[in-house]
Structure formats: structure tokens, C-alpha cells
Design goal:
It is a single chain. The chain is mainly beta. The chain has helices at 22-28, 124-130; strands at residues 6-9, 15-19, 32-37, 42-45, 50-56, 59-64, 70-75, 85-88, 99-104, 120-121. It has one domain (9-130): Beta Complex (Metal Binding Protein, Guanine Nucleotide Exchange Factor, Chain A), CATH 2.170.150. The protein has two helices and ten strands. A hairpin with a 2-residue loop joins strand 5 and strand 6. The structure holds zinc ion (2 copies). One zinc ion binds at residues 19, 21, 23-24, 32, 105.
């Protein structure tokens, strides 16, 4: 939002997803709408302005220290998507022309709204199993 942090993403995929997990709701204000970008395909500028938190045993979240904009969610320790960035669609200059392909943690979504369209919908259990995440004691 303030421009202290910027990025360039290459080889951008055309599909994106939505996460309804409670942590994304708390972090993003509602569902997190994001596109996956492999670490090798993104260059961040202004990293000295980035704050990060290890938000779970397997992932971190980052934001701009100057304005608070969310910058990424990233798997750090396990899973098929390890080290990929999940970058919110809202911080791309142009997020047009993409395809909405998947919603995850659908059983955590508030019942007062729903995204329309024909795409994959995974519950929490289906999501954890799909991405190879093991939650101890959960
Ligand atoms: Zn989430
Ligand atoms: Zn900022």
C-alpha cells in the first residue's frame, strides 16, 4: 500500500485459490485470496521493511512494517509447496485474467457468504491431507 516493499513475479501461474482457515481470516481480515509463486520466480525489494512471524509449525506470514499490508504466506518446514510464496491477489498491480480454481478449509468459512463458480472445494481434513501437512494433536 505504501510502496516501501515491492516485488516482481515471473512465470506467473494463471490459477489462484482462497483459504478460509481461521488464521487466514484473522490475518487477512477475511478469506485469504492468493496466488502461488515459487521462490525462484519472485524478487522482493525493500525486505528491510518486512516483518515476519512463524504463524504455525509449518508456515510464516509477512507484512510491510510501514503500512501493515500483508505480503506473503509461506510454507517453511513441510509439504509439497515448501518455500513457495502465497502472495495476496490484492497486492498485484494487475490481477486480471486469472482463474479461480480452489477453495481450502471450506468448513471454516462463515456461513454468511460463499464464492460462486465451479471450482474445487476442500474441507480442513481434505486440505491437510492434500498438502501433506501433519498436525500433532489437532
Ligand atoms: Zn489459511
Ligand atoms: Zn507498506
Amino acid at each position: 500500500m505504501c510502496g516501501a516493499v515491492s516485488f516482481v513475479a515471473r512465470n506467473l501461474r494463471h490459477d489462484f485459490g482462497v483459504c478460509h482457515c481461521k488464521m487466514c481470516q484473522r490475518w487477512a481480515g477475511s478469506a485469504l485470496v492468493a496466488i502461488t509463486v515459487p521462490a525462484a520466480d519472485v524478487d522482493w525489494v525493500g525486505l528491510e521493511h518486512v516483518g515476519k512471524i512463524q504463524s504455525s509449525d509449518w508456515a510464516e506470514r509477512a507484512w510491510c512494517n510501514t503500512c501493515g499490508s500483508g505480503l506473503w504466506y509461506r510454507m517453511t518446514t513441510q509439504g509439497d509447496d515448501k518455500d513457495d510464496y502465497e502472495i495476496p491477489l490484492g497486492i498485484f498491480d494487475d490481477a486480471n485474467g486469472l482463474e479461480f480454481t480452489r477453495e481450502i478449509f471450506t468448513d471454516r468459512k462463515p456461513d454468511s457468504f460463499a464464492f460462486a463458480g465451479d471450482h474445487e472445494r476442500l474441507t480442513e481434513a481434505e486440505t491437510l491431507s492434500r498438502f501433506g501437512i501433519t498436525v500433532d494433536g489437532a
